[in-house]
TrEMBL record:
Alphabetic keyword roster: NADP, Oxidoreductase
Positions of transmembrane segments: none
SUPFAM superfamilies named among the record's database cross-references: ALDH-like
Name of the protein in its database record: Aldehyde dehydrogenase domain-containing protein
Pfam families (UniProt xref): Aldedh
Similarity comment: family membership: Belongs to the aldehyde dehydrogenase family.
InterPro entries to which the protein is assigned, alphabetical: Ald_DH/histidinol_DH, Ald_DH_N, Aldehyde_DH_dom, Aldehyde_DH_Superfamily
GO molecular function: succinate-semialdehyde dehydrogenase (NAD+) activity
Domain annotation Aldehyde dehydrogenase: ranges: 18-280
GO annotation, biological process: gamma-aminobutyric acid catabolic process
Species this chain originates from: Penicillium salamii
Lineage: Eukaryota, Fungi, Dikarya, Ascomycota, Pezizomycotina
PANTHER family: ALDEHYDE DEHYDROGENASE FAMILY PROTEIN (AFU_ORTHOLOGUE AFUA_8G05520), SUCCINATE-SEMIALDEHYDE DEHYDROGENASE, MITOCHONDRIAL
Amino acid sequence: MSLPVPLLINGQSVTTPTTFPVISPYTNTPIWESSSASPDDALHAVEAANAAFPSWSTTKPTIRRDILLKTADLLESRLATNASYMRDEMGADVGASAGFVVPLSIRMLRDIAGRITSICGSVPVVEAEGQSAIIYKEAMGVILGIVPWNAPYVFGIRSAACALAAGNTTILKSSELTPRCYWAIGQAFQDAGLPDGCLNVIHCAPGDAPAVVNAMIEHEAVRKVNFTGSTAVGRKIARACGANLKPCLMELGGKNSSIVCADADLGVAVQGVLAGAFLNVSYLIEEILGGKRAN
C-alpha cells in the first residue's frame, strides 16, 4: 500500500507531513508508512471529541446500539482484509487473526451493543420518612484509550465501544506497531454512521509518544484514561493522570506462572504454555514445534 496510514480526526482522514515506517515481523522490512501525529494533532482530536460529546451523550440508547451493531456487520464483511492487516503488522497467523482475534472483537462489539439499553440508574430506599433519592447515570465526557499492538481489534473495540456505548466520546492512541488495524476500526465506525468527532484515531512515532500522550492527558476535556500496555509505561501514565487528577483504568502486561499438575501430559502442557506466552508471535511457535506457517 503506497499511501500512509492516516489519522482519523473529526471524521476526516488526516495525512501528516511526518511519517514513520511500519515493519513486518516476518521480513524485518517496512510494509508501509504511517502518519505520525504531533501534540497539536492530538489536541485537535481531543477538541473534536469534546465538541461531539454534548450531542452524542444525549443520543438515544437505541441509536447508539444500532450504530455499534452496524459497525460489527461492517467489520464482519471486512474480516479477511482486517485479519491480513494484523498478520502483516504484528506477525499473527491465519488461526490467530482470522480465526480468533477479529471474530472475537466482532462478538464483543455485538455484546456491548446489546447492553446499551440496560444502562440505567436506580431508586434506593433512604432512611428518612417522606424523602426519596434517585441515582442517575450520565456520560463522563472524553475518554482517552491507549491501546497495545497485540490483539489490536479486541483492544480497540473494548476501549472504543465501551466508551461510546455509555455516551462518551473517545480517542484511540494506537500502537505504532499496528496503526492500520486501529485505523480499520475507526473507519468501520465512521462508515456505520458514527457522528464526526465521536471516535478519533491517532498514531505517532515512538519517540513522539510521551509528548503526544501527555498533551492529551493534560487537556481539561479528557476525563478518564484507559491504558493497556507494559508496567513501565503504565507507571508513567499513572503518574501523569495523578498529577492531573484524572482517573485511569490499567491493564498491565507481564507473564504469570504456569502450574502443571503431577498427572499432566507434559507434551500437551508444554505446547499450551508456549501458545499462551507466544500466541501473538505464533509463527515462532510453529518453527519451534516444527510446524509450517500459514500466512
